[in-house]
Amino acid sequence: MKEQKVWKVNGFLAILLVLLLLAGAIYLFLKLHIIAGILATLATVLLFSGITIVQPNQSRVVTFFGKYLGTIRDNGMWMTVPLTVGKKVSLRVRNFNSAKLKVNDVEGNPVEIAAVVVFKVVDSARAVFDVDNYEEFVEIQSETALRHVATKYPYDTFEDEGYSLRGNAEEVAAELARELQTRLAVAGVEVIEARLTHLAYATEIASAMLQRQQAAAIVSARQKIVDGAVGMAQMAITQLQQNGVVELDEERKVAMINNLMVAIVSDRSAQPVINTGSLY
């Protein structure tokens, strides 16, 4: 199915014509022209059956004894083919908030995820005829696409390699919108935006994953501290030698590096030991 325009004329002109026919039918009955009056009455009823009202941001899908004739998108009062049936379809932008779904990420960890989908109908014929209920179709396909996207990525990457659900929310949302658009095109629906609204580890593993994140953060911090301590020790020895402050042999260099590394890397403040030399 593909949306098309249907024949229509201004509804106020149709009302005027209906009133004229009705007045003519009454006049014919008063003049005892029964058959002509009946025909005028039937014409009045037929014309009146084709009058319809379309609200702003709404369309009306017109069918004639099961045959799709077209769609009225212009708001106002119109007259179309008599004896037709019209179905209203909202063209307004709408939101769908999915429920919190429990899915397994690519590493098999159970996570809770939810999303909001902003959409609107762009082809009323497909929305009415190609799917049974396009609103229910949007809900089911949104949750299906969300599950599929969530299973393609890990919740988090501790080695900073590749995409993750937590670290690449924009990219994940863009992929979710693309997949939704592919799934919902058959229903004549355009996906305006899709965003994650909830993302968390499932309750049964949340504590363990929190400990893992803390451990990874500690290891990363320690690595930076060690890298900085090595650089500071090298810089201290180089400056002492260049300025000729003190002559250091290999043994003293090792001792100095050891002291600097302990002082910088240690969790606690270093306790200085003052060497005053020998008393004898």
Structure in a nutshell:
The protein is of the alpha+beta class. The protein has seven helices and ten strands. The protein is rod-shaped and about 135 Å long.
Any overview of this molecule?
The chain has seven helices and ten strands. The protein is an alpha+beta fold and 280 residues long. The chain folds into three domains: 82 residues, no CATH class; 108 residues, Tetrahydropterin Synthase, Chain A (2-Layer Sandwich); 60 residues. A hairpin with a 2-residue loop joins strand 3 and strand 4. Helix 1 runs antiparallel to helix 2, helix 4 packs across helix 5 and helix 6 packs antiparallel against helix 7. The radius of gyration is 38 Å and the shape is rod-shaped. The N and C termini lie far apart (107 Å). The model has no long low-confidence stretch (mean pLDDT 84).
Number of domains: 3
**CATH-level-2 architecture of the largest domain:** 2-Layer Sandwich
Provide the gyration radius in Å: 38 Å
Which fold does the CATH topology of the largest domain refer to? Tetrahydropterin Synthase, Chain A
Q: Give the beta-strand count.
A: 10
**Given the structure, what is the number of helices?**
7
Tag the structure with descriptive keywords.
47% helix, alpha+beta, Tetrahydropterin Synthase, Chain A, 3-stranded antiparallel sheet
